[in-house]
């Protein structure tokens, strides 16, 4: 094999000249982190609401929530992304669609990617929230009601605080997934980590170095998130439950 | 003005889309078979008492689970074929990229299968292995005749659910220019300027297939739930 390794490629200025190739990598990393974190916050909020709705006694509401979850779980992420990016701007009222199309291309890509990742992940979060609520003994809800709480109060003060503590481990894995899923957004041209890696291959003809760097970056994200979440999990663990002290 | 739908390009494109679906299903099937066979081996290595084997399996599974599928496909589409061509001095026009992308996909999914199978093996009580050994069975016999058959029966719903996820994942081979169902739909939409209709159609087809399959899994789960 006669491949010329050249790790110093990262310190060279890019062909466009604005920064070094390492600068491109960091820009990609920043985009991946920002996109994933924004989408995760939205996904948690939406997922909590939909998850709660799946467990309420009202048949219409729980039916709607079930439909929401099934819709987002049974269409591949890539297809959803393309629908948000290419289809939605055509279907919304024209003034809104035009405003979207006239905005900065990076903003367009970011918005489509964020909404797509957020809704896709929210369906999964909702399933975890539902299973968390359902795993609580029935007596907790009844005790809350017997104490004179209204149903929303029971959810707010009794069921949700417990449920969220119980579902920390599966939520961690969803949190890890959102970083990995964000790589799909390179397909609409968003310059996140994976896309920057690919761009580096085109510009530098040093494919091994750039791909190894990107792979290490993803592994590093994974390790950091897992370490932080482990700390959080230990902190909020419920004594007496599985994995509790 | 409201968007005016024009679905007329879909009927003519059905043969192309069908071919694409055949590719998607083929990749799914190959990846499921490879995933279960290689995943079982990985799970057994991971649980084995031979340190190098269990370290290798743990490293393999953790690496593949930490990296996005898109990255894995790009590795196997862009980098691995070049590496192999360099290594064996193949003529530069040999195109290994598609085969390589498929292998990458299968290797990636194996990591996820191996975790399911490992949990399945661990769900069989330990005493069974001890009983097998007391009866004079070798490790291989115990696994093949006693442990794995029970483990797989417990795992069926999870394995099927993973198969549905895997089928959805196949749409990502789009990055490797394989003409699967989604790739074909995108190409037709792009060609006819009817991307909106074709993408919605693709979404609908995936939804119907995956939803039906997940209902079937739920039904099977109820029917065969161990008492």
From TrEMBL, chain B:
Gene name for this UniProt entry: gltK
Q: What is this protein called?
A: Glutamate/aspartate ABC transporter permease GltK
> SUPFAM superfamilies this protein is in?
MetI-like
Q: Does the keyword Plastid apply?
A: no
Tell me the keywords, alphabetical order: Cell membrane, Membrane, Transmembrane, Transmembrane helix, Transport
Q: Does the keyword Plastid apply?
A: no
Q: Which PANTHER family match?
A: GLUTAMATE_ASPARTATE IMPORT PERMEASE PROTEIN GLTK (PTHR30614:SF1), MEMBRANE COMPONENT OF AMINO ACID ABC TRANSPORTER (PTHR30614)
Q: What is the lineage of its organism?
A: Bacteria, Pseudomonadati, Pseudomonadota, Betaproteobacteria, Rhodocyclales
Q: How does it sit in the membrane?
A: Multi-pass membrane protein
Compartment(s): Cell inner membrane; Cell membrane
Membrane-traversing stretches: 20-42, 63-84, 158-178, 198-217
The UniProt entry, under CDD domains, shows: TM_PBP2
Q: Which family does it belong to?
A: Belongs to the binding-protein-dependent transport system permease family. HisMQ subfamily.
Pfam families (UniProt xref): BPD_transp_1 (PF00528)
UniProt xrefs under InterPro entries: AA_ABC_transptr_permease_3TM (IPR010065), ArtM/GltK/GlnP/TcyL/YhdX-like (IPR043429), MetI-like (IPR000515), MetI-like_sf (IPR035906)
């Amino acid at each position: 094999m006669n491949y010329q390794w050249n790790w110093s490629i990262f310190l060279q200025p890019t062909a466009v000249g604005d920064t070094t190739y390492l600068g491109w990598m960091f820009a990609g990393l920043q985009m991946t982190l920002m996109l994933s974190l924004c989408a995760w916050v939205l996904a948690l909020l939406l997922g909590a609401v939909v998850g709660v709705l799946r467990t309420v006694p009202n048949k219409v509401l729980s039916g709607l929530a079930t439909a929401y979850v099934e819709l987002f779980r049974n269409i591949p992420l890539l297809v959803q992304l393309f629908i948000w990016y290419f289809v939605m701007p055509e279907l919304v009222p024209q003034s809104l669609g035009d405003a979207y199309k006239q905005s900065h291309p990076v903003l367009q890509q970011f918005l489509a990617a964020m909404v797509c990742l957020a809704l896709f992940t929210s369906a999964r979060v909702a399933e975890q929230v539902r299973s968390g609520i359902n795993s609580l003994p029935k007596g907790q809800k009844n005790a809350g009601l017997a104490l004179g709480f209204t149903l929303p109060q029971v959810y707010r003060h009794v069921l949700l605080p417990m449920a969220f503590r119980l579902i920390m481990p599966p939520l961690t894995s969803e949190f890890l997934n959102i970083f990995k899923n964000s790589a799909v957004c390179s397909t609409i041209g968003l310059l996140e980590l994976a896309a920057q890696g690919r761009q580096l291959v085109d510009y530098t003809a040093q494919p091994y170095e750039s791909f190894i760097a990107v792979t290490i970056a993803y592994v590093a994200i994974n390790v950091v998130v897992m370490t932080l979440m482990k700390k959080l999990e230990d902190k909020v663990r419920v004594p007496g439950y599985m994995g509790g002290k | 003005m409201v968007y005016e739908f024009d679905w007329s390009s879909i009927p003519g494109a059905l043969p192309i889309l069908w071919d694409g679906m055949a590719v998607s299903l083929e990749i799914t099937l190959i990846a499921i078979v490879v995933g279960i066979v290689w995943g079982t081996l990985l799970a057994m290595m991971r649980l084995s008492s031979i340190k190098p084997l269990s370290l290798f399996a743990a490293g393999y599974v953790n690496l593949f689970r930490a990296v996005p599928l898109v990255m894995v496909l790009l590795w196997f589409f862009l980098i691995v074929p070049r590496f192999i061509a360099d290594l064996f001095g193949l003529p530069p026009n040999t195109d290994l990229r598609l085969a390589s992308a498929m292998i990458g996909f299968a290797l990636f999914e194996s990591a996820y299968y191996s975790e399911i199978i490992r949990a399945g093996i661990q769900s069989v009580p330990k005493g069974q292995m001890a009983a097998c050994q007391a009866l004079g069975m070798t490790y291989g016999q115990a696994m093949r005749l006693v442990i794995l058959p029970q483990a797989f029966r417990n795992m069926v719903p999870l394995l099927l659910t993973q198969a549905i996820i895997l089928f959805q994942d196949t749409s990502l081979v789009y990055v490797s220019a394989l003409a699967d169902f989604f790739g074909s739909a995108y190409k037709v939409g792009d060609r006819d300027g009817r991307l909106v209709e074709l993408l919605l159609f693709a979404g609908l087809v995936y939804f119907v297939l995956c939803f039906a399959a997940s209902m079937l899994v739920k039904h099977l789960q109820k029917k065969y739930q161990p008492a």
